[in-house]
What we know:
mainly alpha
Amino acid sequence: MAEQPKRLVDTFTTHVMADFKCYFEEYGNNDLVEEFITYLIDFNIIDSQTIKRYAILKDYDLLFATGEHKKTAILKKISRKYNLSERSLWDVIGSKSTRERFFRT
């Protein structure tokens, strides 16, 4: 993923945080992090495909790290959870660009 110019990131951060403060004042509770994530989702700052890909990758990595399951068994388990074909999961899991986007490697 290409690096964004610092000025752009700073501007984005300023706008998102200002909007979030207003959102939090109206809807917030005590869990600021959870509220922030809800805000990002509610206002489509993070789209549903990004959320799904991230969740799939994290689930896969957590299951793989335990060493209790083979890749095929992990894919079957995740495919049932997300109602996706194993081929579709491989497209997400095996995508170098997706991994680079979510994880600093």
